[in-house]
Write a structure and sequence with these properties.
globular; mainly alpha; 263 residues
Length: 263
């Protein structure tokens, strides 16, 4: 929804190069983001924290997200509805930064470190907690910027939601990797994707839902709990208990939405 007082811009016309003004602006930001991720990962590898595999995985994760954004902006997707503006916008730039940070964290999956026990590499563990916390805090910025700039859009909302979903899945995978909880916690990260997959079998699940404070709160609790579980001072038993409670809360939230849609 657009804030009052702001009129949506007309869909940008294609340039001589075949790209709309929106696509040109988005492409610039996507390329800058990719370069930033490459440099950041290369620095970590150069410092000996990770091997080259981290850079490869990070670029694959960020590249996949960038491709999905680019695909959504293609004229054939009806971007006049998805993002009816000529600019990518400050809110989407913040979400793109969040995607870059999540990609850097995701690149740690499968690396020799971090590993159990977390106390063996407390410096790296705390660095991950700080980076994940920064990523979570930025989630409170993009929505505010979208409303303030008058550039809110369906694309921005979906971009934000999918970044959150991927972030949760990445945190779940790291919690398992460092031995703070069993593989069952992956259910928290996979639940959103299972819901989308189920909607292909039962189309009524794809009906729009009204904005919900409960849904937003559960997402915040989920991310916060998983970050806490990655703290090196949190014993595995406590981490597993917190993760289990957050999983129950998330399951209940999805159950409420499914019941609402079924009616």
């Amino acid at each position: 929804m657009k804030p009052k007082g702001h009129r949506p811009l007309s869909p940008p016309a294609a340039t001589a190069a075949g790209l709309t003004a929106l696509q040109q602006d988005a492409l610039k930001h996507l390329l800058v983001g990719a370069l930033g991720v490459l440099v950041a990962s290369s620095m970590l590898v150069g410092q000996g924290f990770f091997n080259l595999g981290h850079t490869i995985k990070t670029m694959v994760f960020f590249g996949a997200g960038a491709w999905l954004i680019w695909r959504a902006l293609a004229p054939r997707s009806g971007n006049s509805v998805v993002h009816p503006h000529a600019r990518f916008g400050p809110a989407n730039r913040v979400t793109l930064l969040r995607l870059a940070l999540v990609a850097l964290i995701a690149g740690m999956i499968g690396e020799p470190v971090p590993a159990a026990p977390l106390a063996s590499t407390p410096g790296l563990a705390w660095a991950i907690v700080v980076l994940a916390t920064l990523t979570a805090l930025l989630d409170a910025v993009d929505g505010h910027l979208a409303r303030r700039s008058g550039l809110a859009s369906a694309l921005g909302a979906r971009f934000d939601m999918e970044t959150d979903a991927f972030f949760i899945l990445v945190l779940c995978a790291l919690v398992v990797q460092v031995g703070q909880a069993g593989p069952w916690i992956l259910a928290s990260g996979l639940m959103r994707y299972a819901f989308v997959g189920a909607a292909r079998l039962w189309p009524w699940l794809s009906a729009p839902l009204q904005p919900s404070k409960r849904r937003q709160t559960v997402c915040v609790v989920q991310i916060t709990t998983l970050i806490v579980c990655l703290g090196p001072i949190i014993p595995p038993a406590l981490a597993a208990g917190l993760a289990a409670l957050s999983l129950v809360l998330l399951t209940a939230s999805f159950a409420i939405d499914v019941r609402t849609l079924s009616r």
